[in-house]
Design a protein that fits this description.
Layout: H1 14-32, H2 39-54, E1 64-68, E2 79-83, H3 85-112, H4 116-132, H5 139-157, H6 164-195, H7 200-208, H8 215-232, H9 242-248, H10 251-276, H11 281-304, H12 313-336, H13 343-371, H14 385-388, H15 390-404, H16 410-425, H17 429-454, H18 470-475, H19 491-509, H20 511-518
Antiparallel strand pairs: 1-2
Helix pairs in contact: 1-2, 1-4, 2-3, 2-4, 3-4, 3-10, 3-13, 3-19, 4-5, 5-6, 5-10, 6-7, 6-8, 6-9, 7-10, 8-10, 9-12, 10-12, 10-13, 11-12, 11-17, 12-13, 12-16, 12-17, 13-15, 13-16, 13-19, 13-20, 15-16, 15-17, 15-19, 16-17, 16-19, 19-20
Length: 523
């Protein structure tokens, strides 16, 4: 039996630990701050996320592990926490996504009158759980990290007190997530019964020599364990909570769920399939392939059917688009079940996730900007955005083109080609065809929204028309149209849009660096 007394590698666990510690600091400081000093909590949270990100730098020197089984009776060292390249890349994505979310949140807290202390504590707590998950190498730690990332998110979705839509969204999110967690825990218990261990590497060895009498139990455990992570990725049929939750949640939280929530789900799937269940690749490989095809089709078709004049249609389209993007992200994971070396397929998923995180957070940032003057956030509300705010319109057009995979969003095209190649190399030609069809479907609604940004002149942008102007004469107008109210844009919101745009442009300028960086994320 392994020794239970060992030293803790504090440097290895620094990223999630720093994030959790800052969350506690925010909670305590909030008790002593007067109401007019609450903005200080946002600065503390931003500083904490930056510090957590900087704690990744010392870990680049080599892999580190802690909480390991040790002793003469342990044949192969099994650790509960491992800070390898895969962990660092995903933690960078999670902490970067949380930082951009925090920048979006500074103005949203004041506008929506959200309780600042609770908001920042919950956001940092969720980010700490999300940062812990990629380093987890046993099922117990994986489930705990998953729940630490999820439980604060329920509260964040429903934090707008007195808002019926927000409460309903939180309830749907909570009930569906709890059900998925219960199923996952049942699967974990089956796997423990079949293999006698919870460590991923030891489960892989145990499933290779499982007692024939427990084979059905083991297969059921594999299937049920994947359900919880499939829910987090919003894969069909576990996607029904997405549109209502995104609409009911504060926009920064919807952005957070669309990026960091997905990162948690895909990381969990990658870990349990490639590390723990390689023996059952012939089971989960085809299952993930079908799941990817159905998910991308359902998401894109639903996004295509969104009515531009419907309330919150912009957020709903982004929600259904995120479901479609989840299908693309599942393709390389399915390909890993057919490949001799799954590392390249995992690298394709990580590369796509990095691209998606930057541009999708940017799209939500522009949506938050538009919502400051047009809270219904219809797609038609973006008509004439170029006339009102050229820089925001150009940034949003760039984000949409990246998601569509069209120039100048080269990184979007590069990421889709990488995923497409992973499917072809794995012999999944039919899945590559389904993906190609879905990319064409997505082109329509992304380009349609992009065109709306540049339609309409100054008069449709809500600007005042001179009484004697040619436009006024042509329309028979005798009075000026009301000007759109001027709303001060928080510097942090502008910084979030600028940062997301800069990342997208930089990645489009050197897309090969993304794949090279992601290819280091080996499991």
């Amino acid at each position: 039996m392994g020794s239970l007394v060992q030293s803790v590698d504090w440097l290895a666990i620094a990223p999630p630990t720093v994030t959790a510690a800052v969350a506690l600091v925010v909670l305590v400081v909030d008790l002593f701050l007067p109401e007019d000093r609450k903005p200080l909590l946002g600065r503390i949270a931003l500083g904490g996320l930056v510090l957590a990100g900087l704690s990744l730098l010392p870990l680049l020197r080599g892999d580190r592990s802690t909480f390991c089984l040790t002793g003469p009776d342990v044949a192969v060292t099994a650790c509960s926490y491992t800070a390898d390249r895969f962990t660092l890349v995903i933690q960078l994505l999670v902490l970067g996504g949380a930082l951009l979310t925090a920048l979006l949140s500074v103005g949203a807290i004041a506008d929506s009158k959200l309780p600042a202390g609770e908001y920042w504590f919950l956001l940092l707590s969720s980010a700490a759980g999300a940062a812990l998950l990629p380093a987890s190498r046993d099922l117990a730690t994986l489930v705990v990290a998953l729940e630490v990332a999820s439980l604060p998110a329920f509260a964040l979705v429903g934090l707008r007190r007195g808002d019926r839509r927000s409460s309903e969204a939180a309830l749907k999110f909570f009930l569906s997530s709890v059900t998925a967690t219960a199923v996952t825990l049942l699967g974990v218990s089956f796997l423990y019964a079949a293999t006698g261990t919870l460590h991923l590497t030891e489960i892989a060895d145990g499933l290779g020599h499982v007692d024939p009498r427990l084979a059905v139990l083991a297969k059921a455990g594999v299937a049920l364990t994947l359900v919880g992570f499939a829910f987090k990725t919003a894969a069909v049929p576990f996607h029904f909570w997405v549109p209502d939750t995104y609409v009911g949640a504060p926009l920064p939280i919807a952005a957070y769920l669309s990026v960091v929530g997905k990162a948690v789900g895909f990381t969990g799937i990658a870990l349990v399939t490639v590390v723990a269940f390689p023996t059952y690749a012939d089971v989960w490989g085809p299952a993930l392939a079908v799941l990817a095809a159905v998910t991308m089709t359902a998401g894109n078709v639903a996004a295509l059917r969104q009515r531009p004049d419907r309330k919150h249609s912009a957020v709903r389209l982004l929600a259904w688009s995120s479901v479609g993007q989840a299908g693309y992200l599942l393709v390389p994971l399915a390909a890993a079940g057919y490949a001799e070396d799954p590392s390249r397929a995992i690298g394709s998923t990580v590369a796509y996730a990095l691209m998606y995180a930057a541009v999708n957070l940017g799209a939500f940032a522009v949506a938050a900007l538009v919502a400051r003057t047009r809270p219904d956030n219809r797609i038609t509300d973006y008509r004439g955005l170029y006339a009102r705010n050229p820089l925001a319109a150009l940034a949003h057009a760039f984000f949409l083109l990246c998601l569509a995979g069209l120039p100048p969003g080269v990184i979007g095209l590069f990421a889709k080609v990488t995923v497409f190649s992973a499917a072809v190399d794995a012999g999944l030609g039919w899945l590559a065809v389904v993906m190609a069809v879905n990319v064409v479907i997505a082109l329509y609604y992304y380009l349609q929204w992009t065109a709306v940004l540049f339609k309409g002149g100054r008069e449709e942008a809500g600007e005042t028309l001179p009484t004697g102007s040619a436009t006024a004469s042509a329309t028979g107008a005798t009075t000026a149209l009301p000007a759109e109210p001027v709303v001060r844009v928080p510097a942090t919101l502008g910084a979030a849009i600028a940062l997301a745009t800069a990342l997208g442009v930089a990645l489009s300028g050197a897309p090969q660096l993304v794949l090279r960086f992601a290819s280091q994320a080996l499991l």
